[in-house]
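Worked Example 4.2. Consider the chain below.
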Amino acid sequence: MDIQGSLPLIVVLVVAGFLLGNMFAAKPKAHEVRTSDFRLLARRLGFNPKFVSRPDWLPAAVQTGVRANNHAVKNQMVTAYAVINDEWRLPLVRLAATDGTWQTIEDSHALDGASIDLPKDIGDHVVGLQAKANSLIIYWHDGRYQSWQGTKKLDKSLAEQELTALQAQLTAWGDEMNRIKSAKH
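Applying the procedure from the previous section yields the following structure tokens:
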């Protein structure tokens, strides 16, 4: 067989193999699809999720229940989910999640020592809570949400129930903080 005659065939096969390899490698992983579907659902329910670096005020060694080899933990990235209520006038309060309870970073607050009463698949990955002005922001590793699903898609009905419970709890905490601040003035 003449190498000159088969060279175009070899080039075509190499290019086709390269293109197919790129197409298969470009397919997103199941947990990435689940996380993006979860964030889209959260936006639809009124949250404003943002993937951010861990705030400086959070302690470096936060107990989250997340494995140490998790990509988000290595890079110190968390997702901030904000609930905004224009009627709130909240003081600046920063709480870290430690062993299932809230611990204030500075000063003291009514939520200091309170149990983090959130759905398990959310509560296990919470790292902090911040109140300021008219918003309440929860910081957590949402990439680990429904990690027990493996390669399955997001269970949207369960996710919607848990996001609704998260929103109700954040609203309750925000209302309580607003009531406490209003009572002081």
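The helical segments are 3-25, 30-44, 71-74, 120-123, 156-184. The longest helix spans residues 156-184. Compare this with Example 4.1 before moving on.
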